[in-house]
Design goal:
2 copies of one chain form a homodimer.
Chain A (H helix, E strand, L loop, with lengths): L16 H15 L6 H7 L4 H7 L3 H19 L27 H18 L2 H12 L5 H15 L7 H19 L14 H14 L7 H11 L3 H19 L3
Helix pairs in contact in A: 1-4, 4-5, 4-6, 4-7, 5-7, 5-8, 5-11, 6-8, 7-8, 8-11, 9-10
Chain A binds a DNA duplex (19 and 19 nucleotides) through helix 3.
Chain lengths: 253, 253
DNA sequence: ACCTGAACACCGTTCAAGT
DNA sequence: ACCTGAACACCGTTCAAGT
């Protein structure tokens, strides 16, 4: 078999934290979560483990940095603007969408939400990593980044300032929960042909759900059919709109 | 130091998948995600690794079973009914809440949501594990369990059947996202005195957020103060109500 | 059928030594 | 200041052997 990528030529660029994080993201995308090892990293960067440890404290920090880089790009850009290379450094301010009427702040929320959704689709490991990062390291950079980009749009909605935190939290939580679950791609595939593997997969789940015990799972069985033809992004956006509708109904009415 | 729990007496019960899962949950609760190793399990159960592998295919399956056991108990019971011992096997049908008027289906949703929330607080490893389980194994038992218990209440709301899937998904996604992020307990503490460690922690986050760059993070800084005194459960429920309000506003109105 | 425990391949991390 | 690479402790998993 011997699938050797003969990338172990002499190193041309100097090692740097940025280059290490970049390589980590590539490895995660290519080989999945279990593919990111210091040995693989070491080979790809043509160096030794000690060198990596000089730039990065440990694996947890490396995963955090990889997550942060991808998230930064996602919230800055909006939905899949096809950035081929992931650049760890992102512009400070997101490009302004349509100059802001109060109503199109809702579109802003949708835009950021889709940006995160697409990022998770492109980088399936993000789903798990986001959960890890947000729950055991909320003082890090990842949470504020997401919070800020959603929150700005929320503050442009007409919602009393005292509710900003609650509303933003609800949106962020929905987005992360939904994006996470929908990012079910077979590991390794860079871009999945949208019609083929995916439809097959949904079919499998739908069938499995239809075969559940009728006494224990009446609802899930009843609804299994609806999963078959559905479009993930559409579904995801419908959920965002549901929350936005709740915001409108609850505040300023 | 030699902190030996001298639990390695001769085994009294026979080994079984159930007992292994139970021990795994205890280990996860006590020592965190990194504390669950086959060696620790082996010592606690007074056996060898081979014996465990006879009952369980691998670590991934073990984690899945542990997650499933805890989730099953959570959705069956509702908010923290203080089950001291986690019983992997759960009753088939959840105990009926107040006999169902259409309006109290909303209370049903709140009840299940709080049940999951509390479960994650009691078992912080659930947050990460749920994300893993749901995203790379949706044909497992965990997803249908959660889906069913929320979905039943949704179908008792007056929402057209064609929207059941969308609405249930949105609720489940919010619940998992929110519960996940809020489950920030210091690892190891079984029950945390609610007023002490937690307030200190929120204080730290709030302060950190106030010190962010004013140009990049105006919103997060503005809202940092609101995090200080807030009650997680209250916040969580407010989000559930926001989604429910959205459902009411969008459907059958 | 169920369990034992030594052994294997692999992993994250350290550190004395080099430039 | 930055990098090398051997070495260490530990982990999930296997398997021939026992009962």
């Amino acid at each position: 078999m011997a699938t050797r990528t003969r990338r172990s030529q002499r190193r041309t660029q100097a090692l740097s934290r940025e280059r290490i994080v970049e390589a980590a993201v590539e490895l995660l995308d290519t080989a999945g979560e279990s593919g990111l090892t210091f040995r693989a990293l070491t080979e790809r960067l043509a160096t030794g483990p000690g060198a990596i440890y000089w730039h990065v404290a440990n694996k947890e920090e490396l995963l955090g940095a990889a997550t942060d880089a991808v998230v930064a790009a996602a919230v800055a850009i909006g939905p899949s603007a096809a950035t081929a290379t992931t650049s760890p450094a992102a512009p400070a301010t997101p490009p302004a969408e349509e100059a802001g009427a109060a109503g199109s702040a809702q579109d802003g929320v949708r835009l950021v939400a889709l940006g995160l959704f697409d990022a998770i689709v492109r980088h399936p490991w993000l789903a798990t990593q986001l959960a890890t990062q947000l729950s055991r390291n909320p003082w890090g950079t990842v949470t504020p980044r997401i919070f800020e980009s959603i929150g700005r749009r929320v503050s442009a909605l007409d919602v009393p300032e005292s509710s900003w935190f609650t509303v933003t939290s609800a949106l962020v939580h929905y987005i992360l929960g939904a994006a996470g679950q929908n990012a079910v791609n077979k590991a390794g595939a860079r871009t999945l042909a949208p019609g083929v593997d995916r439809a097959e997969f949904l079919d499998t789940v739908s069938t499995a759900w239809e075969e559940l015990d009728p006494d224990e799972y009446p609802f899930t069985r009843a609804v299994a059919e609806q999963i078959r033809g559905h479009d993930d992004r559409e579904q995801f956006l419908a959920g965002v709109d549901l929350v936005l509708a709740g915001v409108t109904a609850t505040h300023h009415r």
